[in-house]
Each structure stands twice: as C-alpha cells, then as structure tokens.
Write a structure and sequence with these properties.
The chain is α+β, with helices and mostly antiparallel strands. It has one domain (49-177). The protein has helices at residues 2-51, 128-131, 156-176, and strands spanning 57-63, 66-72, 78-88, 93-101, 106-114. The protein has a five-stranded antiparallel sheet, sandwiched between helices. The radius of gyration is 23 Å and the shape is extended. The chain starts with a helix and ends in a 5-residue tail after the last helix.
C-alpha cells in the first residue's frame, strides 16, 4: 500500500513539473517571438541589399504571384531584382536569396540563407569561393555541376541542388516578367 502512495505522489510531482515547464516555455516563446520576427526581417533586408550590388534601398513588388524586391541606387534607379527561392539539398532544404539583372539576363549575386548539408562538405555551398562562380552568370547557361558549374569535391549533389534552385528561380522570375523586362 505504501508503495502505491509513493507512485501516485511521484506521478503528481512529475506531472506538475511538466505543466509548469511547458507554461514557462510558452511564456518565454511568446515574449521572444517579436524579437525573432524583427531579427528575421533585418536579416532578409541585409540579404536583399547584399545580392543587389549598388542598391541602398528596395521596394517590394508582386509580379506573377511572386514576391520580388527591386533594388534601387541612391538616385532611385533600379539596379536589379532579388528573389528568395528554395529547393531540396542533400540533407534538407536550401534557401537562397538571388540577385538578378533581368534586362541583361544574368545573376548578380547569390546568398545562402539556410542549409542543412554536411559541415565541411555540402555546407561549403555557403562559402564565397563556391557562390562567386554564379556572379555574372547568364540565364541561358546550363547550370550543370561539373560542366558549367564547379562542383564542390564530395558534394556534387549539393552543388547541383544550388544550380537547380537557381535555374528554377530564373525560370519563375522570367515567367513573371513575361520573358524579360
């Protein structure tokens, strides 16, 4: 009999601790949610301006069902369009911010916002050495790893995944612009 009372008390204590912990975590989450949202918005703004060299500000555009960001220089002249796009990598989703010059049909710059690939291998898609090969790359290029894209040794799948995401993004943006500006 005494053993049953201890088990019931133990269950009650552990359940109480679980409920209190869940309540505290919920309160902390609700308190930090606005800060997380603000940080994400700031990171997105920085990424947009980073992939559009010469842009000091941007305006949001809705075109063909896409959310695009037109970069503007200090005089208010357009310098390109940024587009956030994602696709499957080797171990998870890869999210890119892509700067494009629609008029000249070329990529301006690429920034990896998120990826889950293997550190030291697929995660090297975030390195400048890999990303820089896409600067000034024509929309009409093949975007095939080991052909016109230098693949990362041991991470061909990740390299091709970035190429596929870029090619798909170009297609979508060109469709939104009706084949170009």
């Amino acid at each position: 009999m005494a053993k049953e009372k201890i088990d019931i008390r133990l269950i009650f204590v552990l359940t109480s601790i679980m409920i209190i912990s869940a309540l505290i975590l919920s309160i902390v989450y609700q308190g930090t949610k606005p800060l997380i949202k603000e940080h994400a918005a700031q990171a997105k703004k920085e990424a947009i301006l980073d992939v559009l060299p010469g842009a000091v500000k941007y305006k949001e555009l809705k075109k063909g069902g896409l959310d695009l960001y037109q970069g503007l220089d200090g005089s208010g002249n357009p310098v390109g369009v940024a587009f956030q796009h994602q696709g499957n990598g080797f171990q998870g989703t890869i999210i890119l911010m892509i700067g494009m010059d629609i008029a000249n049909k070329k990529i301006l710059k690429v920034k990896v916002l998120d990826q889950l690939d293997t550190p030291g291998l697929g995660a090297r898609i975030s390195e400048e050495e890999f990303k820089s090969q896409f600067q000034e790359k024509s929309f009409t290029d093949a975007f095939v790893a080991k052909e016109d894209v230098d693949a990362i040794a041991g991470a061909t799948i990740s390299s091709q995944a970035v190429s596929d995401i870029l090619k798909n993004a170009i297609y979508k943006v060109e469709q939104a612009y009706g084949g170009g500006e």
